[in-house]
Amino acid sequence: MIMDFGGRALDMGRCHVMGILNVTPDSFSDGGRFNRPDIALMHAREMVAQGAAFVDVGGESTRPGAAPVSLQVELDRVCPVVELIARELDVVVSVDTSTPEVMIETAKLGAGLINDVRALGRDGAVEAAVASGLPVCLMHMQGQPTDMQDRPQYQSVMREVSAFLMDRVRVVEAAGLPAEKILLDPGFGFGKTLEHNLQLLAVLDRLKVLGYPLFVGASRKSMLGQITGRDVNERLPAGLAVATIAALKGASILRVHDVWETVDAVKVVSAMEGVGQ
Ligand SMILES: Nc1nc2[nH]c(SCC(=O)O)nc2c(=O)[nH]1
């Protein structure tokens, strides 16, 4: 299934790597390194050279406990970087935002995907996403970053995550967003215990049957630290394991910090899947 990302067509039947470009001072693993547009462009260029099909630009940290940022701060962080990358590089610029005005502005500046961890939950976000004409990733989160990890609870995490995402799909499709512009994401680490995250990973293919491309982000997250005991900058092997599992289970986009390493892991999965039986 070919999806059009602001003029760049990509086959969602394949697994693509998205490089993370946090332009926030407090992101948990690379906070503050890429705040200047020229430095951000250099990092984006490097990730594209390593095989990233997407670069995800986020101006508001959504780590547990993160404080919201003002509209102007988010615009000031994100817009110059989106404009520069969209102009200079042949890559889909994804914008990690829940803010309607940021969606509209960055779409004008050449963004190709809206990546909203709040599934267009903020006032005006559905309308802004529809008006932007861009594809949207709808992600599940229980609670808000300020409290989501306090006491995550589910009767059945996959059933509840699926129900939430399908409800959001109904809302955004009714508002005019075509089905072929929707991606779904279970939201690893967003209001989930380690057990919930593992249960979602184990049955990720069940999310696929909803009929939308799957987006997965687990890179360097605390779930990997809980399993391995590794610090945030030593979680690459565990991250590659999740990337491989997700690719095997049909994920279309993997959001990661470590691009070439993940590209290679995906190449192994694709090579195996491509060989005649
Ligand atoms: N769609 C999507 N967007 C994201 N943005 C972040 S920011 C927090 C972090 O990188 O730990 N995570 C995700 C994710 O899992 N899915």
Structure characterization notes:
The chain is of the alpha/beta class. It has one domain: TIM Barrel. 42% of the residues lie in helices and 16% in strands. The chain contains 10 helices and 10 strands. It has helices at residues 37-49, 71-88, 100-108, 125-132, 157-174, 194-202, 204-208, 222-228, 236-248, 259-274, and strands spanning 2-5, 8-11, 16-22, 54-58, 92-96, 113-116, 136-139, 182-185, 215-217, 253-256. The strands form 2 sheets. It has an 8-stranded parallel β-sheet. Helix 1 (37-49) links the parallel strand 3 and strand 4. Helix 2 (71-88) packs parallel to helix 3 (100-108), helix 3 (100-108) runs parallel beside helix 4 and helix 9 (236-248) runs parallel beside helix 10. The longest helix is centred in the first third of the chain and has 18 residues, at 71-88. The radius of gyration is 17 Å and the shape is globular. It starts with a strand and ends with a helix. The model has no long low-confidence stretch (mean pLDDT 95). It binds ligand 7PJ. Ligand 7PJ binds at residues 62-63, 96, 115, 117, 137, 139, 185, 187-189, 215, 217, 221, 255. The ligand Nc1nc2[nH]c(SCC(=O)O)nc2c(=O)[nH]1 binds next to strand 7 and strand 9. This is Dihydropteroate synthase. It holds the Pfam family Pterin_bind. Pathway: Cofactor biosynthesis; tetrahydrofolate biosynthesis; 7,8-dihydrofolate from 2-amino-4-hydroxy-6-hydroxymethyl-7,8-dihydropteridine diphosphate and 4-aminobenzoate: step 1/2. Keywords: Folate biosynthesis, Magnesium, Metal-binding, Transferase. One of its GO terms (cellular component) is cytosol.
